[in-house]
Amino acid sequence: MTSGTVCLTFDFDALSRWIAWGLASPGPLSRGEFGAVAVPRILRLLSGHDIPATFYTPGHTAETYPDLVRQIADAGHELALHGYCHEPVSELSEAQEREVLLRSADILEKLTGQRPSGCRTPSWDFTEHTVGLMAELGLSHDSSLMGHDYLPYPARTGDRWPAGEPYRFGSPTGIVEVPVSWTLDDFPAFEFIRTEQLVMPGLRRPGEVFANWLDDVRYMLTEYQDGVCVLTFHPQAIGRGHRMIALRQLIAELKDLGVRFARVDTVAEAWRQGRHRR
Ligand SMILES: [Zn+2]
To answer: Considering the entire predicted model, what is its pTM?
Structure first.
């Protein structure tokens, strides 16, 4: 019998994203500050539907908004790693990358009493060390790569791409990759950003964006018996009124499709037990 699972994931970047982007002035920072206004709205919506979710939360956010992070945990959601201050890992040395993971895990554990078991790298950036460091830290799952759309798979270390030769896949690790996609991320769809380097137009109609997302879930239900679709939200993006109305409608339509909602750690554990393989 066909079934499908949807993971609602929220990257609670708050102010850290703007600091990491070098846009730390009062205007952009206030956009991050709005993320903290949005989180209680999201928690109310999720609890009204009894939906468990995963919140990828930088250590910086957790230390800035400890009460909100405790509320997220108390509501039964998963808290997982997302850098300390949203630093792109490709700009870090291996030692710095390890230090960021350890420090952030300690912060989340101290606040919630629970050691995080999952990670999502800021902006889905990766280095050749990232997966090995996650394994070293004892994490069980990651949600940053895009090698599939509906089936989790083991994250690898040691991939090589020598010039003029075929790609050489490395060794699978114990980290379960629960894949994501830019096409299923609210931030580029909704947020308007203009800097000297780039213009990100954003500001799309949420109904139009979510129609695409629903079609991705419909396709999963026709092609896979036990697939998983990960949707990525940012409180500072989704928390605006018209988008919250659209999220409420999206959840209703997903329920009509008969999908289950699960935290990413639940999906990773089920994958280990042989689920979500076809
Ligand atoms: Zn982020």
So the answer is: 0.97
